Amino acid sequence: MFLSFLKTPFLIGSIAPSSSFLSKKMIHPSILSNDMAIELGAGSGAVTKHLVNSFKEVISYEISKELSDLIVENFNTVDVRNEDACRCSEILSKDRSNACTVFSSLPFTLMDKSKVIGLLEDISSSMKSGEIFVCFFYMPNIFLPWNQWVLREIKSNFTVLDYSLVFLNLPPALVLVCMK
Predict the structure, then answer these.
(1) What are the beta bridge partners of residue 133?
(2) Cis status, amide bond into 9, omega within 30 of 0
(3) For residue range 29-55, what is the model confidence (pLDDT) as tens digits?
(4) Integer angstrom CA distances of residue 131 from 20, 32, 102, 126
(5) Phi–psi pair at 139, nearest 5 degrees
(6) The pairing of beta strand 57-61 with beta strand 36-40
(7) Is the Cα torsion angle 152, 157, 158, 163 positive or negative in sign?
(8) Could you say which of 3.30.2320.30, 3.30.70.1560, 3.40.50.150, 3.40.50.10580 is the CATH number of the domain covering 2-179?
(9) Distance (Å, rounded) from C-alpha 121 to C-alpha 12?
(10) Is the pTM of this model over 0.85?
(11) N or C: fewer beta carbons within 10 Å in the chain?
């Protein structure tokens, strides 16, 4: 993971995989009745491991070929898409009967602002009312003044239901649970 970060820091966004404390905090009790999880930025599978135990269907997007191959190797029940997370709106906008939760591990504060805004708008407009969007940000990065736009964009597209600080992660993180 660390070597992947050194090669492409703006795609990977972290020097270490998410901790089990962060992964468990992302799976909020109110969303366990949903059948399908869409994971954006699967990375090395730290969150994926918890999703496969909590949802009937998991679709993971990972832009890094190396990391998506790792997910395929470790989780044979996961539908892994080695492509840009922006493609997830294709699944979300399909006529589907099952409720869906979107989990994002994307490094929004490191990504191009217009791409993040477009992605959040696409996700929001493709989700059904009442569906859940979960994301996290590393601290203190998200609290820096020049990164506040990300929180404003999330709040303009979703209703924040809950937030948690996870200190047992490297680096510590802020988890947001939001509803469409």
Answers:
(1) 102, 178
(2) no
(3) 767 677 899 999 999 999 999 999 999
(4) 24, 12, 8, 10
(5) -100, 150
(6) parallel
(7) negative
(8) 3.40.50.150
(9) 22
(10) yes
(11) N
